[in-house]
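Q: Fold this one first, please.
A: Sequence and structure below.
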Amino acid sequence: MSFVAELALPGLLREDDESGALSDLVSVLVSSGDLFYEWDLVADGLTWVGQTGDVIGVGDATKIVTGSTYLHRIHPEDLPRRMVALSQHFDSSQPFDIEYRYRRDDGNFAWVHERAVAATDAAGTPRRLTGIVRDISAQKSSAEEVDFLTNHDALTGQFNRLRLREALGQAVETTIRRKGQGGFLLVGLDKLNIVADVYGDETADAFVLAVAQRIEQCLRTGDIVGRVGFDRFAVILGDCSEQQVTAVADRFLATIRDTAVNTSNGPMYVTASIGATMFPTSAKNVREVVGQADNALRSARRLGCDCYLEFRDVPQQHIPERPDLVVAEQVKQALRDDRIVLAYQPIVAAQDGTPVFYEGLVRMLDEENKPVPAGVFVPIVEQMGMMRLVDRRVLDLGITTLKENPEISLSINVSGMTAVDPVWLRLLQEYLEGQPDVAKRLILEITETIAIDDIADSSRFVRSVAELGCQVALDDFGAGYTSFRHLRALNVDLVKIDGSFVRDLPTNPDNQLFVRTLISLAKGIGLKTVAEWVETEEEAELLRNEGVDYLQGWHYGKPETDPSWLS
C-alpha cells in the first residue's frame, strides 16, 4: 500500500465519513487480506476491521482490544524494535513501517508487516494510531533464511556471537593440537551509541555495515569475523605471530578511520578501538581469550578513540584480580549449610516515609552466624561462575518470604548470568504457578550496565517475567549509558538511581543536575523512581523536591536479617 490516504487515515473508523469514500477504501484493503486497526492511545482501546484470525491468527478479536494485550503477543526479541520505531514515529514523524513476529492462538509465531500513521492533538501529543497489518509469513518461511539467521547477524551477514564463539573454540583446539599460535581481536566502534541517539538507527547501521565491509577487506583467506554486539566485531586470526596481529589491527584502524561513510545525513567519519590477545600462549580456552580481549578493549577505550592495545600491555590495575578460592569454597559450604540469607532494607514513600516494599540483599553468615556483606564474596562468586547457584538460593528465600508474609512486597537482585539462564526462569515459573498474589509482590532488579550490554536479551528477560506477573526494576540507573530509546525498549516498571549520585547531593551541584535529569528521563515515560543510599534528612528533602517517588538508605533503615515483621 502506498498510504495515499495517509493524511486521512487517523479517525477513519469513526462515524464521520459522510462521503463513504474512506470506508470504501477500508473495504478494499480488507478484501485484499489486510487487517485494519485504530488504536486510541489515551484510552488504550483497539478497534479492528478485517479477519484477525486470517491475518494474525487470533480467532477472537476481543482478546486484543487494547494496545497492551496486542503487545503481549509480539515476539520478545522483536518487541523492543517495534517500541523504538513507534517512539521515533511519535517523536519525529519518521514513517512507522516494521516487520515482526506475532504469536498466534496455536502458539506459533507468524511474520507480520505493520504500517501506521499517528494523529496528534494541538500540543503535538500522539492521541491515535491508525494502521494496517499484513501477514508476510510466506515470504519469511524459507528454511535457508531461518538457518542463516540462527548463525549470522541479520544486518551484516557475518557470524553472530554464538557462532563466533563456536568458531573460536575450534580455532583454539586446532592451534593447541598443531602447537601453533593464533590471535583474537575485539573491534569496538567508538561512540556508536551517541551516533544512534543523535542521527538515528539508520545512520548507526550504515556505520556498522561500512566497518563490517572494511574489516572483511583486510582479512586473509581463512580468517573469521563476526558481529558480537551492538558496536562490536570479533576477528579470529589463525596461524599468526604477535607482529602480524599488530599489523592487522593497524590496518583495521586506518581503513576504518580514513574513509568517510556515506549516510542519509551525508558523509561521516567513524573510528574504532581494538583489544587483542594471543592463544594459546596467553589464553588457553574460549573464556580466557574473550575475557582478555575484552579487558584489552576496555583499556584501549580508556586511552581515547582510535586506539589499539594487546592484553600483555594492559596496566596491571586494570586486570581483574584472580578469584579468592578460599572465599569461593566458603560460599559453597554456606550454600550447603543454608547460611546464605537475605537482609531486608525498607524502601519508603518519599512523601511520608511509609515502607512500600523491601529489598532482599544477599548475605553470607560466617561460621559464627555473623553477616558477611555481599561486596566481600559476590565479586568472587561472579568470577568463579557460581552466581547462578547464589541467585537460585536468593529466589528460593525471596519466594518463601513473600508466601509467609502476605502483607509485604519484595525486590531481589538478578545477575546478568542468571538473566539469560533458562533453568532459573523455569524455576521462577514453577514457584509462581498458581500464585498470582506472590507474583505481583515480587520485583526483580537487573543492573543498568548489564541491561544495555545486550538490549535484546534484557528485553526478553523483562518480557518473560512480566508475563508471570512480576515487576522489573533497573538498578544503578545512571551508572551506564541508557538512552531514552533504550529505556523505553526495556519496558521496566521502575528505576533505581545509582547511590553514587545521591552521596553528597546537598553540596554537589553536578550530582543535583544529574539526578534531576535522571528523574525527568524516567518520568517522561511514566516510570517510578527510587533513590538509593539516602543517609540524611537533607538528602531526602532534596530528592522529595525533585520528585523522586521512593527512598532507600540507612536514614530509613539498615538491612536486617531478622526484621520485626518477618514471620
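Q: Good. Now the second chain.
A: Here it is, same layout.
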Amino acid sequence: MSVNVTNSAGTSVANFTVPAASLGGTYTQPISNLNAGSYTVAGSTIASTTVTYTPNATPSITAGNTSNVTIKYSAPVVTTGKATINLASVVPNYTGNLQVQILNTKASSAVVNSYTVKQGGSFTTEDLPTSDSTHAYVVKMTTGIADPLQGLYYVESGLPALTITKAQTTALAIPMKASTIAKKNVTVAISGMSAGDTAGVTFSDAANKYSYVNYTSLANSSPVYKIESGLNLGTSVAASGNSYVTNPITDTGVVNAAKTISAAFAAKPVSANNYDYTAGYQGGAGATVTITQNTAIVNPKTAVITTNFAPTVAGNCFTSTWGGVTSTTKAIGSLYQTTVTANDSTDWSGKVTPGYLNLAVGCGLSGGATVLSGVEYGIVSGVSIDGSTLNITQPCSSTSCKDPGNGKIISGYYPDWARYGKKFPLSKVPFANMNEVLYAFIGFNPATGDVKSLDAWADQNEMPTLSKAMLQYPYMHATLSFGGWTNAGATTAPMFAQLTSSDASIANFTKQSVAAMRAAGYDGIDIDWEWWSDYSVAPAAAQIKLYTSLRNALNTASQQDGKKYRLTIAVVAGLDKIQATETAVPGAWKTIAGLVDNINVMAYDMHGAFDAISDFQAPWGMEANSPHLATKYDIQDAMNAYVGYGVPSSKLVLGVPAYGRSMKVASLNNYGLYQTVTGVPSGDNDDASSGATGVFLYNCIINSAACNNNGATIAALTFVNQGSATFNQLSSQAQEPWAYGATPQGNIFLTYDNVATATFKTQKVKANGYGGVMVWEIDGDAVDNPTMSLINAMKTELNK
C-alpha cells in the first residue's frame, strides 16, 4: 500500500510505501521541505467487487508550521441483502455439481463469488451490498449441461439480472433453454475388453461449454451419442482392468459430421513368468528387479521396465558382463519405460555373436521419484521380456487374490511412528486380510497449502512398501491421510481452518496432495479434520469447499489416468458434533456424502479418563443405567444420525479401536464401571512427549508380555468377557468387554474391543448395509495371531 502527496497543480511532490508490518495498524511518515499551499494526500485505492476504499485528505501547509494530516481506511456503511438461487432439473442423468457465479457488471463483470449447485437444488448467498449505482448483479452458469446419449444440451438463457434488496432474500430461478444447434451421431465402438471388465466413457470440450454425463459399466458395444455440431470434443474410454496396451483410449477433434471413434482394447501379452523388485536399502532410492522363470525364457534379448522415475541402469543389468547391455529410457505420460537390450559381440574376423540377457541376475536401477520433500523412491510397475508381459509376484495367488472384503471395505490406519517404539514396519500389515491401508499422516503448511513429510525417514522406508502392495494385491487401496488430532505436536483443527480461509491455499494443497498420491502410486486421499479438538462451531462450509476442490481434482486425475481415485474422510461419532455440522450448514452431510467415496466413522474415544465417570469407550448401544445416557454417545445413535441426514449407509465405514482406554477410579464397585474417575494412568507406549494417556494397544491387553511398558498393570486386571453373567448384566447393549482391578498404578478400569466385539460389530455392518469396517490403528492388532486378530475376525465374518 502506498501514499501519494500532490500539490494544487496535481504534481506529485512526495510518496512512500507503508511497511507490511504496519498494515492493520497506524503508520506515521514525516514529510519536510514543502512549500506553503494546498496539497492532496491520498492512499492507494483498495477495491473488491463489493466495496472500494479511496481515503484522502486535503491539508493546507503554512510557512514555518507543521501540519498533522490523517488519512484513514474505514469500512463504509454498506446495506446488504441475500439471494437464494435455484436450478431446475433439465438433464436428469447429470448428478454432479455445477458452478454458478455472481458478477458485478458495475465492476467490469468481476466475480463476486462462486457457488456449487446440483440440478433441482439451490443455494443462498452470503450478504451482498444492495443493488445501486456501483452494484448491478447478474448470475452466470459457467457451463451448460449435456447428456449426449439422450441428445440433451441445455445452456443458460442469457445472464439473468439479480436485484439485491436491503434486509431481504431475493429468489431467482436460473433460466435454462435447450440448445438448437444440430447434432451429429458419434459412435464409440468399444471392443477387446476381457470378461468381467467394463468401460467408462467421458466427454469434454475445448471451450468448456458443457458439463457432461459420465457413462459407466459399459460392455463391449457401440453406443451412439448425439454430439452438438461444432464442438471440439474430447473423448476418453477407460477400461476397468489394467491389462491393456493402451488405457484409456482417447480421441479429440471438431465434430462436423457423423463419425466413429474406435476404442479397441488390445490385451498385453502375458507370460507365465513373474517379476519382483526391492526398493533401495534403508531408505535409499532406486530398485533392483528380479525375474522368476516358471517356464524357461529362451534367448531373451530385450527387457522393458516401467517405473515412476527415469533410472540410471547399472552396467551389469541382466548380464554377467559389465557393459553387456545397452539401455534407453523414454517418458510415457507420468511414467518411464526403460528398454534394456543385450549387446551382440563381434570378433576380429567380423563374426557377430548374438548377445542375450541373463535373467538369473537382477537389474539395478538408481534414482527415484520425488513423492514428498525429502522422500524419494522407485516403483517398478511393469516388466516385459521380448514383448511378453510379466506379472508381479503376488503373495495372494493361493486365493486367486480374492478381495478379502467380499464387497465391503476392510481398512486400517498405519501411523508412520509405528516403526519406532512399537517395532511395527508397514511390511507387517496383513494385506491378505485388508483392502485399504490409510498412511497416516502427511503434513501441510496451513498458510500456503504446501504438502510435506512429517517424518521423511519413516516415509522413505515405509511408503514404498504400500506402493508395492498396490501392485501385488489387485484389490488393495492405498490412501494418503492428512490431519489427525495432532501433527508434530500441534492440533490440526486450526491448521485446517487457516488452510481453508484462502482459496489459493486450498488450490495449492489440492494440487500437491493429488500429485503426491500419484507419484506414490496410491489411489486415495483421506482428510481427518477433527475440528472439535479446538473449536465448538463446526466448519461445515469450509469442509465442503475443501472436499469439493479435492473431488474435482481427483475426478480429473481419474479421467487422465484411466483409474478411479478415491476421497475418504474421518468423522466423529459424537451425536452433538454430528448435529453441529448439520446446524452450521443445513444439508451439509448429504452434500459431503456426494463428494466422498467413504466416511470413516471414528466410533471410539466416546469415554475415557477425560470423563468424570468411567464408561465404555466404543459402545454399540447405551446401557439404561449409564450416567451418560442422555448424551447418546453410542454407535447406533451416531450411525442413525448420519443416515438420517442423508448419508447413504453404503458409504459409512464403522471404525473399531485396536486399543483400550484405561482410567484410574475411586472404587472397584460395580466391577469398576460407572465409578468416579480420579486420574489418567500411564499406557504401554507413553513417553515424556505424550505424558500419561491411559492407552494400551489391543495386542498388549490380550498379552501383558507384549506391552512395551506397564505390562504389570494389565497382568493385575480381571477381565469381564462375553458370555459371563456379569457381561450380560452390565454390557448387553454396549457389547463391550472390560477389565478392572487393583494394580501398581492404583484402581484401574479398562474399556476395549476384543474379537467377539469386532465380530458383533461386523455383523451389524452387514445387517445395516454399511460400507465396511476400519481399524485405528493397524499396529495395535494381534496380526501375528489369527485367532485373536481383530482384522482377521472382521474378514472372517464378512466372508460368511
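Q: Anything worth noting on the second one?
A: The CA atoms of residues 51 and 462 lie 52 Å apart.
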